[in-house]
Design goal:
single chain, mainly beta, 7-stranded mixed beta sheet, 4-stranded antiparallel beta sheet, 54% strand
């Protein structure tokens, strides 16, 4: 059974930082492309960052320079470090794994106050 479990969200003030984690089980983690998405209230889910099995990364234009995606294949975990948080970063953050199928975690809430 595949499980993706996000953690690390919370309530922070603007300018703060958070490190989100997503622990995977039931998949060959190192072979999966891992992504972080977010969904703000009333908005569509949007891709934030991706890291391929090769360790190559790509970011959405709106987060480039503030967010860092990384993975630890020994721990089956993908991370999203978020710096200089803004109120508009408030959203539920989801991790996604893709190789032959798509898998999603349950999400972790990030709330940024001004």
């Amino acid at each position: 059974q595949v499980q993706l479990v996000e953690s690390g969200g919370g309530s922070v003030q603007a300018g703060g930082s958070l490190r989100l984690s997503c622990a995977a089980s039931g998949i060959i983690f190192s072979a999966n492309t891992m992504r972080w998405f977010r969904q703000a209230p009333g908005k569509q889910r949007e891709e934030v960052a991706v890291i391929w099995p090769s360790m190559l990364t790509k970011y959405a234009d709106f987060v480039k320079g503030r967010f860092t995606i990384s993975r630890d294949n020994a721990k089956n975990t993908v991370y999203l470090e978020i710096n200089s948080l803004k109120p508009e970063d408030t959203a539920v953050y989801f991790c996604n794994a893709y190789r032959f199928s798509n898998y999603w975690g349950q999400g972790t809430q990030v709330t940024v106050s001004s």
